[in-house]
Amino acid sequence: MDFRLPTDPIVTASDASETGGGLVASVGVTEWGAKVAGGSIRGVEWEKIQDQGLLVTSALDGIGSLRVALDALKVPLAGYVAIESNPAARRVLESHFPCSLHFSGITQINKDKL
To answer: How does strand 77-83 pair with strand 54-59?
Structure first.
């Protein structure tokens, strides 16, 4: 795979595990993403990720283990969207991560809300 090829305007990633799966799509890449795709940052210049942040959307978030892992790794976040239908798990999420956006179902989210 040649990571220096031009990118498609829609970036996708998927998980096709036997016990479940997920799919994500983006409408493009950031300036930072374009630099990464072009290979211009690998060992050439310092990665200024402290000025960047991820917008993370976690479906079937449970009690927030992804968020805990991201915090432990000190991943800079631009925002965190938790989708959890279980009311007990959602209460845990809301109490531990009150600044996150919380939804009880995937159908409640649209581009404008993000």
So the answer is: parallel
- Residue 11 belongs to domain spanning: 1-46
- Nearest CA among 102, 62, 54 for reference residue 81: 102
Which residues, other chains included, contact 47 with Cβ-Cβ below 8 Å and sequence gap of 6+? 41
- For the full predicted model, state whether its pTM sits above 0.70: no
Domain termination site, one of 46, 61, 81: 46
Q: What is the pLDDT of residues 43-86, one digit of tens each?
A: 444 444 445 688 888 888 888 888 888 888 888 888 888 999 99
**Number of C-beta neighbours around residue 3 at 10 A:** 10
